[in-house]
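Holo prediction. Input below; ligand is 5-amino-5-deoxy-1-O-phosphono-D-mannitol.
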Amino acid sequence: MCGIVGYIGTKKAYPILISGLSRLEYRGYDSAGISTIENDGLSLMKDKGRVKNLSNLDGIDNLEGTIGIAHTRWATHGKPSKENSHPHQDNSKTFSVVHNGIIENYNELRKFLENNGYTFYSQTDTEVIPNLIHYHFSKDDKNDNLKFLRAVKNACLELKGSFAIEVISILYPDNMIVVRQDSPLVIGTCEDEKYLSSDIPAILSYTRDFYLLNDLEFVVLTRNSAKFYDENLNEIKKETQTIEWNASAAEKDGFDDFMLKEIYEQPTAIRETIGAKINLDSKCEFDELGFTKEYLSSINKIYIVACGTAMHAGLSGKNAIEKLCKIPCEVDIASEFRYRDPIIDEKTLCIFISQSGETADTIAALKLSKEKGAKTLAISNVIGSSITREADYSIYTHAGPEIAVASTKAYTSQVVLINILAIYFAEILENSDMESLTKLKQDILDLPKKIEESLDCSDEIKKFAKQIYQEKDVFFLGRGIDETVAREGSLKLKEISYIHSESYAAGELKHGPIALIENGITVISILTNKDLVKKSVSNIQEVITRGAKTLVVTNQEIDRNMFDTVITIPETNCFISPILSIIPLQLLSYYISKEKGLDVDKPRNLAKSVTVE
Ligand code: M6R
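Structure of the complex:
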């Protein structure tokens, strides 16, 4: 939610800021703005609408400043408007601030500041921050070189909620101060320049060396230094980390949209995620975990907790964990889990899945599980992301940066990684048949090639998309693991094509939803489980009888003449079949969205990383 960028260096800041914002637009795109330090004061250029509009603002070309901050917004407090856009300034225009996150106690702080003579011009929670900084600054009698930092620190310690903040001041033309709590912010560093961003890919073309911040670490940046302080303003040492991602991974590379590029990157993403973890002649390896038989035997329950697509990946992983490890596994939505007082203790292992590693509900659920004594394991795609720093253990998908709001390669990488994790547990526990584990390992190793084959359905899917893009409702059906894919297919369709869709366990149809089936309605079914195929076919038969148009995604022998369109995918082990069966559904959503002329990568109302509750 919201993207922030910063630059301090030797070049003009504004083009770098705008370019960074355009890469972060997937995080929010209802308004944008920048502020730079100019000779005659702080510039402030902002408006509602897309980042590209910034380049047309009067006077933007005249900005000479080499220090600046920038923001692209996903509205939470106050509608998209110029007044509510960031950056925000204090009343005296001494400080400019951009903020990503939510200040939960802003009403209280606003009243306090109003009582102290401050006026507010926006409906945002953020506007309290520069004014609070000003308040503390003006109350501080000491005039030492930490005065600016002290004011920011004192203000931040009064904020409740989540924030990643960048602050510049006309009184300190060579400094920028930044801090984060539960919202992402990274600092890229090279000689004489510092680049700041909500995520790594946006600034990967400038540097591979990053500082990753922990909560409430305050940073004072100059062109050639970065000093880190804890909340008592004791200086702390921090090393840079080198990020291995390739800068071109954050470009479209000739594809029309990031989503399509990311769909086609799945063979590589899966190959990278498997890495060296699977070896047919020896046990699976996770150097980061080092779990023992004694520990795994003591676990009486595994929870997988996540949101959206990551939760769907968790649902498909449940199967492998329960069947291969014989440990009961529950999958929960993070926003529900955190408020339902789940039964957890030191014998529970809680696994949290998050592509970004910054999802507010998932982080909160993780913190709760730790408080209750469970061991926590994070699965993320972003090295150093918040969940990985909170969890006891972390493992990574290696899907590379995922830019499109609709998650594709992160999902399939998560599914493969949970399956490898399940094999790793099962091999340590020694309670599964080794031959089937080896067979599953081989099937996992064969996945990249089979994904390539699955992508061959693209033309057929495009044709089907043309037939149904104007529909108002679509249904997805599946049984067993296919039901989890039905959910994911339905979510993909909703989020980027804005078509209403529902997914159902096929056996539930007769218990209500079949009342919605009428002539011409589209029903999409997934059939990959040979034990359930007959049952599912008879459910599809029921909707055909009521006039439904059908698309079937399958790797089973079925009577193709029964259905309008059949997409055949390669056969594989049932546990990992979602990795192949989701591909036609990802493509279908993509082509419907294109057919409707929508913005595939930045669907309305959505943000890539949901860092607020
Ligand atoms: O970064 P996360 O994996 O924690 O994100 C979770 C969901 O917000 C995310 O999967 C969302 O559902 C996607 N837009 C789905 O395509």
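The radius of gyration is 26 Å. That is the main takeaway for now.
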